[in-house]
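Hello support,

Our group uses your service weekly, and this is the first time we've seen a run hang past the timeout. The protein is Phytase-like domain-containing protein. I'm not sure whether the cause is the sequence or the server load. Input pasted verbatim:
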Amino acid sequence: MTGCSVSADTQRGVEVLSSYSLDNALKETSGLFCIDGGAFSINDSGNKPELFTINELGKITGKAELDITNQDWETITGNEDYLYIGDIGNNAGKRKNLKIYRIDRKDSSKTEKLRFTYTGNKPADNVPYAHDYDGEAMTMRDGKLQIFSKSWATETAHVYNVQDIKAKQALSPIANVEGLPGVVTGVDWSEEKQEYALVGYRSNALGMFKPFIATISNEYQVTGVHMLPQFAQVEGVCHAPNGNIWLTQESSPYTSAKIAVLKIH
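Update from on-call engineer: The timeout came from a worker crash unrelated to the input. Re-ran successfully.
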């Protein structure tokens, strides 16, 4: 297991190139996966099992209702052949049926289900919002799915590799990411940059959020952390083909759902 913690490079800046409100149909956006000309996004629990395509202006350009269940969708990623939706939200820590759906990009009616557990997890013992067996962030690196945990108890993100070919599996951490200023809600790997973009936040009992974006090396070292005071409950992040970074924000009593395009210098 690899565990790394380094000081963030505070000299690198974040430039917000654009920011737009999302359509109300995506007010609980929970994941983002960039493609040429746009991105896929999804809503989390309590919403229909719908897959949206959007552009950088926040406009919905397509929508498909999938024949699968949305218990707590939290993340989406993919490759040229498939999309992967992580039904892995587990704030209370009591879920025993965590799963990932694989959807054929040419025919969205063709879906498969991957089930998994976390090694060492005992759901009955978990205290809501005070355990490390939650997840909202998933990406694909070198042909492998990876989950970054939303670690309420330790704020140390645990990284898990998922074996795509196995229908049911137990996951153990392959790395830890330490030194983040909150919990992780989204991640995306860039093959070109050989680094991860990661978003998350620290929250309080009043529902106030202190969001951040971080860059993580291919060895799971924190190489930059930047606070995002102009945003709130950030949920999704992805690398656009042109090198920019997109993120989405879920609506809250204080602000609307948004999509933003960033550049990290």
